[in-house]
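Dissemination and training. As part of the outreach component of the grant, students in the summer workshop were shown how a complex can be specified as a set of sequence lines and then modelled as a single object. The example used during the hands-on session is reproduced here so that future cohorts can follow it. Participants entered these lines:
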Amino acid sequence: MGLEERRKRERENRKNAILKAARKLFFEKGFRQVTVENIARKAEFSKGSIYLYFNSKEEIYSQILLNDIDKFHDSVADILQGPSSASEALIRVAEIYVDFFLNDRELFRILMNFMLHNNDMNLPEDINNHIIKTTNRTISIIEQVFKYGIEKGEFPPDINLRMNRNAIWGLLNGIISLHLFTGKESGRTEVIHSTIKSGLEIYIRGMGNSRKKEGGVFV
Amino acid sequence: MGLEERRKRERENRKNAILKAARKLFFEKGFRQVTVENIARKAEFSKGSIYLYFNSKEEIYSQILLNDIDKFHDSVADILQGPSSASEALIRVAEIYVDFFLNDRELFRILMNFMLHNNDMNLPEDINNHIIKTTNRTISIIEQVFKYGIEKGEFPPDINLRMNRNAIWGLLNGIISLHLFTGKESGRTEVIHSTIKSGLEIYIRGMGNSRKKEGGVFV
DNA sequence: TGACCATCGGTCATATACTGACCATGGTTC
DNA sequence: GAACCATGGTCAGTATATGACCGATGGTCA
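and obtained this result:
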């Protein structure tokens, strides 16, 4: 209720307004295509004012990334709250994962790029660490689903968690990449969802058979 | 969406925040008991800032009065939208009138004071005019209810509009004054409402009889 | 009554926030 | 490779916000 408090609150509001405007522009056109002047106009500020709240264009971008990554992690983490079966949980995680990145292609590009080039990108140190940490946490969520499946007797008890989770992780990223590559014409969400669903069902069925065959993704 | 526009909008917001804070304080404690510093703190501004938006404490008060008077007028004016009978309309106007001023005693005091001393108060010219204009409009609404009653055959056709409307106007103000005078102990809204309702019913009944008696409020 | 004090409306020098013209640089065109 | 353009970032000028201060007013007490 104080005075200092009000100014702090208003500063926060302005920062958020800038982030919101910038986010929309970045995810519409990509980092390079958006100018600081664009952001300023959309947020109804002058260019100079932007630099009162952020030190650089990169910093704006970084903060958006951090927010989005956290939001993503939260929505995936929710899945583990009482799923009915491991198969369903796996499919649900996959759907959320894909949906999220179809709505935030830029973030997906960044993350893929990050995975491919790791430290080549000139992101600040803390952003780097945050991406790594969050990615690991997300991967571990997939791993937990596998653990849960084993405990329930749904998946074979001797599957290799690390390999399986990586396979699924790769599968999802691959499908999204493919989607981005092939573009809009094949881009309806339902198509992707059903692709993923069938893909995962086949994969899960494969796990059941693999003990006899000694092949596939098992150690 | 422009830049000028944003600043204008924010200025308006701040002005409103100050008015809102001031209104609450004024109607809780009265004009004299509230300091500009009080208003500033409640609105989360410094005292100096208040004077960026208003020229004086009086001006703040004036603007609140104008707003309230308009609001009051609007709510009374709504009554005339399709009432079922003139008697009901009259009671309804009375109830709204009383309710309004029980929630805004300070405004009532101002208006009564204004009616009693007229130009003695040091309110700015435009406020003076506005009060006169709005009061006249409100009184004319009561007059319209009487007209409506005559047209519907509900009231005698030869009643003196001016005298009747003034009588009702006085009745209402008198009841409110009495209430303010006697204070909280007799202050429940229902009591006042029923007082008004009975009073008006008696009054209306009186109108019907007056032709024979040649007395009362008729010419 | 008059000296003293407290309170409060209003002012103003200072501090903070905002703006857009300007600068430096890196890419593009001819 | 020179002339040009686009754009990230800077900074001097302007607008807005702050609170210590001033003068007037009214209450208190000797």
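Chain A touches chain B at residues 1-3, 5-6, 41, 44-46 (CB under 8 Å). Students were then asked to discuss how this feature might be tested experimentally.
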